[in-house]
Amino acid sequence: MKYKLKPLHDQVIVITGASSGIGLATALRAAEKGAKVVLASRNGEALAKIEQQIKQDGGEAIHVVADVGRKEDIYKVADAAIGRFGGFDTWVNNAGVSIYGRLEEVSDEDNHRLFDTNFWGVVYGSLAAAQHLRNRNGGSIINLGSVLSDVAIPIQGMYSATKHAVKGFTDALRIELEEDDAPISVTLIKPAGINTPYTQHARNYMDEEPTLPPPVYQPEEVADAILYAATHHQRDLFVGGGGKMMSATNKYAPKLMDWVGENMMVKQQKKNQPAQHHEGSLHSPGKDGEIYGNYDGHVMKSAYTRAKINPVITGVALATASAAAIALLGKNSLKKLDKDLVNQKNKENR
């Protein structure tokens, strides 16, 4: 299947969970590059401000108040994009939330709500997008999974389960669309820990304030990966070399990752301070409008992800490095040759 994905400046992009974190970073970056943006989340006040900001900066945007766990709300978002812009070219299923707590502690109500947002929101969004894109000569569906689509960790066990489910659904959807020869690219993005308001928005059963296990990366790294997938067919993309390493280790040495989870992951997800945000935004909108979270460790840029989404630049860098190595090798070889000739001449003169 050949995918004809438009350049960003010709696209209409729908982004769920657009009122904070990765969704907000992606919306602002997409608008800067000329895309028309449809912003969706539960927080209408925050969305209105973001829409206004984009318009003031010369971009085009609309916002739709929607709960992705409600199928009718997803179709309301699609209808708004069609009504205002005539359709959409990329649909980003980004909305998500977490729960910090041991599996036996978390209520059924909270677990069901978590799946409504993280899993059913992706299902409803993907199917609505596929239905539209079949009749629009194709486009892209981009689902936000996680490194926890491949690796499960304690304290966020049910969140890990939702992201495993997202991966299974996304892979099955891709196969079915390809079997139908539908010109729709389906990508799963797998971020590692990202410095967004993720921990403040999470429902927290712990006595301590939650935090992210390192390494932690900047939200813009995910935004750039998403926008790359909107214009280049990709099966999946990791954001953060640390996440890629965790996934590979879990695949080839699962007992080692179990040991890491048992001995390190619980401590690495707790701050040494009392919990401040027990309820989070699991059941209702929280404080939105911010891209960044309150992670107090070192926040990284991802050389691994940048290499994956900039293959030409990476190829030039590798070629330059190779040429330099060859040149250095050649220079050293000439020095050795000169030294050998001198030694040989000295022997002959003895």
Number of helices: 11
Task: Assign the CATH architecture of the largest domain.
Answer: 3-Layer(aba) Sandwich
Beta-strand level of the residues, as a percent range? Answer: 15-25%
Averaging pLDDT over every residue, what do you get? 91
What's the CATH C level of the largest domain? Alpha Beta
Quick synopsis:
This protein has 350 residues and is an alpha/beta fold.
Describe this structure in words.
This protein is of the alpha/beta class. The protein has two domains: 8-309, NAD(P)-binding Rossmann-like Domain (Rossmann fold), CATH 3.40.50.720; 310-350. It contains eleven helices and 14 strands. A seven-stranded parallel beta sheet has the order 3-2-1-4-6-7-12, sandwiched between helices. Helix 1 (21-32) packs across helix 7 and helix 3 runs parallel beside helix 4. The longest helix has 39 residues, at 311-349.
Give the SSE map.
Layout lengths: L11 E5 L4 H12 L3 E6 L2 H13 L3 E6 L5 H15 L4 E4 L5 E2 L7 H27 L4 E6 L12 H23 L4 E8 L1 E2 L3 H4 L1 E2 L3 E3 L5 E2 L1 H13 L4 E4 L1 H12 L1 H15 L1 E5 L24 E2 L2 H7 L1 H39 L1
Parallel strand pairs: 1-2, 1-4, 2-3, 4-6, 5-9, 6-7, 7-12, 8-11, 11-14
Antiparallel strand pairs: 10-13
Short descriptors:
350 residues; alpha/beta; Rossmann fold; 3-stranded parallel sheet; 14 strands; 16% strand
